[in-house]
Amino acid sequence: MRLLAALLRQRARRDALQLALWLAGLAGLTAAATAAAVFDAFADEDDRREILAVAIATRTILIFRGTPNGVSDGAFAFFLLYAWIAMLGGLMAVLLAVRHTRGDEETGRAELIGATPAGRVLPLAATVLHGALTQLGLAVLTAAGLVAAGLEPHGSLVFGAALGASGVAFLGIGLLAAQVFGTARAASGASIAVVLAAYLVRGIGDAAGTPSDDLVRVTPAWPSWLSPIGYGQLTGAYVENDLAPLTAPLACGVVLIALVFALQSARDQGASLLPDRGGRARGSRLLSSSLGLAWRLSLPVLAAWSAGAVVAGLLATTLTAAIDELSGDLPQVVELLQARMGAIGSIEEAFVALFFGMVGILAACCAVQAGLRARQEESRGTAEAILATPVPRVRWLAEYGLVGVAVIAVMLAAAAAAGAIGAARGDHAETLVPVVLEAAAAQPPACLTFLGVTMLLVAAAPRIAATVAWTLVGLSGVLGFFGPVLGLPEAVVDLSPFAHTPVPVGDEAGWSGGLWLAIAGVVAAGAGLVAMRRRELATD
Question: Cα–Cα 20 to 30 A to 195, which of 90, 176, 204, 241?
């Protein structure tokens, strides 16, 4: 028990900053959004009924929100927030799991600990306990925040329990991915893809669900049962408060963790279920330069984020048929939807602007990950081999910045092409395609801001660069994309660079905000290059 307690303290100390930001951010965001949306922007039940009617009529909104379950304060908050917070909690769980398992094996830390009386299994037990306590903390803090915001305690506890149970399932998924894949990068990528797939599968099931006659409830279809997040929704927090569905994600997590213990005790240190693929005997011409190497290292990241951007681009324009149908059957719903989205042009333009705002967030995430790749290479010591050649440090970091610019351009081009293809299949291609192109062209300034800030962090504060960069882009994405919908104060929403992205809807679009964002990104990147000249490499 002493060794287990010591290992647990070591993990808590290593993750102190990251977990503080994750837990405080998620719990605080849930409480703040509840207070702003439920008790301020949508305090009237008639407004909530209209919003739910819009969501059920368009169905695609349910992919991002969840299943409505009434118009009470708690039910409305659960509909607005649960699925999104559960996805973020799942990302926290899988990243924690991979960091303390496969990540420690890569750095050699696991081998050192395994040489002590702790052995190889006890550190895994400490990681499991650490992850479970983290999910318990998320559940308790979220429930406390919801009660503080004004919701009733019983439903708030069910809300928190649903988050914790889905997080345990994702913790098991992250631990299993660390056993299957030979690198932390591959394990993290695979487990993050599973979390996003769980969110999407849940969304498909919700969108295909059966609405009630009064259009305030939806019974999800069977795909939602394939997702831990979907089982959390089945609790019906604040209405049914049924904890029975949570046995499914908890059982999934327990089974996966038991399997991981069996694999951990049988496999060799550093080995994996999927062996590393052998490389080519001779490298391609692309790898003959440091810039080509930086681009090659970022290709898997680009492919993953671009897939999401293409889906969002297609949704932006393929919804026009459904919107046209709504305009004939439920014109009052379309008018309400347009008003709620703040559109001054057509409803089709509003949807394009909305979905390409999401594409901008994805492109910013991809740019941040491309910039942080420089820090990963530095921390692992592989950057030393590059810098031992005539490549100076400033040029080395600048090349990762250039790669970040390139991935932004490629992602937005892919999303724009997908949107144009979707528009070409509709009846308004001649008017919608230019809107798609303008919406895509409006996204780079905010993306460049985050890329520049990431480069500055890598150069000036390398050990906390990843934590701070992801926290900034995550909070900014939530505030910029969901802030207006949740009714957050304008001063809070304006803290996000995404809130200042030009919105080409209607006859006029203000582009000055985008100009200032681009300037801020360039200045931050320049400061990072200057700072890179003045410090030594900081490896782990």
Answer: 241
pLDDT tens digits for range 410-425: 999 999 998 888 877 7
Which long-range contacts link 233-236 to residues 24+ away (Cβ below 8 Å)?
233/66, 233/67, 233/82, 233/83, 233/162, 233/202, 233/206, 235/158, 235/161, 235/162, 236/69, 236/75
**What is the rounded distance in angstroms from the CA atom of residue 228 to the CA atom of residue 334?**
33
The torsion angle over the Cα atoms of residues 121, 125, 130 and 133, rounded to 10 degrees, is: 170
Distance CA 191, CA 402 (A): 28
DSSP 278: P
Which pair of tokens denotes residue 241? 């408060």
Residue 141 — pLDDT band, cuts 50, 70, 90? very high
Q: Give Cβ neighbours of residue 294 (< 8 Å, ≥ 6 apart).
A: 373, 374, 399, 400, 402, 403
User: H or E stretch including 211?
Assistant: strand 210-211
Instruction: State how far the Cα of 17 lies from the Cα of 465, in Å rounded to an integer.
Output: 12
Which residues contact residue 356 at a Cβ distance below 8 angstroms, ignoring those fewer than 6 apart? 312, 313, 316, 415, 419, 436, 439, 440, 442, 443
* Nearest residue to 263 (alpha-carbon basis) of 61, 34, 102: 102
C-alpha to C-alpha distance for 351 and 93, rounded to whole angstroms: 32
The answer to whether residues 532 and 393 touch, using CB atoms and an 8 Å cutoff, is yes
pTM: 0.80
